[in-house]
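User: I'm writing a tutorial on reading structure tokens. Could you give me a worked example: one chain, its sequence, then its tokens, then a sentence or two explaining what the tokens reveal?
Assistant: Sure. Here is the example chain.
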Amino acid sequence: NDSIDPYNPSVPINRDNAISLGAGSRRFKDAYLSGGVYLGGTGSANKLDDYEEGNFAPVYAISGGSVTTGSNAGRYVKIGDFVFFTFRIRTTAVSGTGALSMTLPFATASENRSGGSKGYARDWGVDMPEFSIYTPPNSSIVLFYRHSMNVSTAQSVTGSQMGTGSDDNVLEGSIVYRSA
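And here are its predicted structure tokens:
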């Protein structure tokens, strides 16, 4: 049997859910596992088999145009198939009038139902768009949609609504989504 099982020789039965590994002042340092860890149960939903932290610098793109981004920064934590991503992005040059998008560190799942929030934004052309951040299913990009008070549908944020200076379209925010 290739396992290390909890056992008490004075009680000749296997012990289930009765023995702790370490204690508050007697801790183990590191665990190196080639598989996953089951937390709170033994079902497949309880298996944590992916945890990752990293940096990812997002970039803007405009359909039918070009965007030059500069000094962008992003940080992500991926736990299982959920990604928590914070970012800061800005442009140094913009040309084109197509729809605006931004890259993500991981592609979204087919059943993704999520978006993000804008924490800070500045220098977005003549009309600072009040926009939402949308992560479509099966995609590696984020889309931006602007909202108007008396319009029933959201419209894409486009290159024509962006600032064209050397330090414009600054956006800081966060996104939570399911990865593929």
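What the tokens reveal: The two ends are 35 Å apart (CA to CA). The CA atoms of residues 65 and 96 lie 4 Å apart.
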